[in-house]
Amino acid sequence: MANIDGTNERLILTVDEPEWVGGSNPVWSPDGKSVAVAIGTLSRNTLTGNNLSMTPTVISVADGTQTRIEPSRWVYLGRMAWFNDGSGLVFLAQDQQLSPPQIWQISYPESEARRITNDLNSYQFYNLTLTANDTSLIAVQGDPVSNIWIADVGQPGNERALTPRKNALEGSRGIAWTSDGRIVFDSNVGDGSGSIWVVRADGGEAVPLLNNKTSDTGPEISADGRAMVFGSLRNGGNQVWRADLDGSNQRQLTQAAGGVPGFSLSRDGGWVIFNPFTGGVYKISIDGGTATALVSKGSLCYPQQSADGTLVAYLFSDERTHRPRIRVVKFDDGTLVTTIDLPLTAASNANALFYRGWHWSNDGKAIVYVNTLGTVSNLWSQPIDGGAAKQITNFKADGILTFAFSPDGRKLALARGSTASDAVFISEEK
User: Fold this and answer.
1) Residues ≥6 apart with Cβ < 8 Å to 70
2) Which of 214, 236, 251, 279 is the most exposed place for a label (fewest CB within 10 A)?
3) Where are the beta strands (DSSP E) in 75-135?
4) DSSP 3-state assignment of 346?
5) What is d(CA 160, CA 122) in angstroms, rounded to the nearest whole number?
6) Of the candidates 84, 101, 132, which has an alpha carbon nearest to the alpha carbon of residue 23?
7) How far apart are CA 417 and CA 88, in angstroms?
8) At 118, is the secondary structure helix, strand, or coil?
9) What is the strand order of the sheet 207-210 is part of?
10) pTM of the model
11) Superfamily covering domain 20-134
């Protein structure tokens, strides 16, 4: 905090990893003596049972004393606002990894929480305001949905839906092919905790592959079909787990402080390459063991190995221009090979570490990325030797959340969807 003219700047809060401070702004209490922020911990979540939770925390500006408002039952908290009499807070929160964010209130200091909304729509994390008399609020309500599609590479017009579009997010964190031509994806169907499903490429009904109610997302399949890796919140933070393709023999691979948002399998299935929340890029054997750093630090996203196994590429946001860029390094020692600029429309949320909107081409000669103009996404291919980018799909509607090439490179699986949003006015007794 500081005086309004910038003088007398002083630190009032520090948290040590693996704890973290939420992305929303701190909010002043009505008496000006405290601010409230959201703090995340690896303590046991009273709702999910997993070791990951966030809770509103009140900080004294006089001495930095923290009062954490329990219960710690939310996976993520967004914008907060105080009631004018200081009796509590209203805020946006998500109680499962892929569940729709809802509006909550909690009393202070009694810590009695209740949901204001309880519907199937989402509410945008950072849009919430109270009226001056606390009787009403305004938020932005959204309805994000996605389903699984398949397309023939190089043949626009042959795209077709494999799963029906319903009030659910399918493939929002990851989609992959098995060696026998099935498509594996994550879904928030049900309670929103995150589960992994599979559907045949020729259609049919999708069936659950992993449905542990442990927030499992982001499936990746080895080329030989022997193993699947995925992210799970079951032991605190989003760590990488592996399982056989039938869902058996599940075990944890990574132990990174705070968790792992981005990860992929090497082409030979021998390595998991990942970026922890604390920064950098690491590799670990598919059989477990000690992780080795390829890049020691930096907010880097979704590292992936090239087709021949010699290179690793990862996405990052340029600190000065905020332009999304791909950096290519050697797999053996992390030596820089080249850096590729992507258009600003290629990754509007490139700072979101869970982002998976790009891949190596199957031949390892290009980076294929999602490019979104307005609300419509298509895939473009950028040669790593610096040639001109080329559009490879021709969709006229909807966005692309994630995609994956089939093992032979002839087909694409895509999670496509849209979000309708409106400002909503909610009025009720406090």
Assistant:
1) 46, 55, 111
2) 251
3) 76-82, 88-94, 102-107, 113-115, 122-130
4) helix
5) 27
6) 101
7) 37
8) coil
9) 170-177, 182-187, 195-200, 207-210
10) 0.84
11) TolB, C-terminal domain (2.120.10.30)
> Is there a common fold for 20-134 and 144-419?
yes
- CA-CA distances (angstroms) from residue 1 to 35, 37, 61, 178? 10, 13, 8, 52
The HSE-up count of residue 280 (CA atoms within 13 Å, CB side) is 14
Return the residue matching tokens 């850096």: 339
Residues 6+ apart with CB under 8 A from 315: 300, 301, 302, 324, 325, 326, 347, 350, 355, 358
Q: Which two tokens stand for residue 410?
A: 């002839």
Mean pLDDT of the chain: 90
Q: How many residues in the chain? A: 430
Report the amino acid identity of residue 147: N
Closest C-alpha to 153, from 406, 325, 345, 369: 406
Please state the rounded mean pLDDT for residues 416-426. Answer: 89
Residues 6+ positions from 25 with CB-CB distance below 8 Å? 79
Report the alpha-carbon distance of residue 41 to residue 56 in Å, rounded: 11
Could you give phi then psi for residue 383, rounded to 5 degrees?
A: -60, 140
Distances (CA, A) of 53 to 42, 97, 230, 266, 410: 6, 11, 20, 31, 42
The DSSP call for residue 74 is: B
Measuring CA to CA, how many Å separate 369 from each of 61, 322, 330, 366, 419? 45, 17, 21, 10, 20
Q: What is the structure's pLDDT at 430?
A: 47
Residue ranges covered by each domain of the chain: 20-134, 144-419
In contact, 238 and 259? CB cutoff 8 Å: yes
20 forms beta bridges with 40
Whether omega for the bond prior to residue 219 falls within 30 degrees of 0, making it cis, is no
Which structure tokens are listed for 162?
A: 């494999």
320 pLDDT tier (thresholds 50, 70, 90) = confident
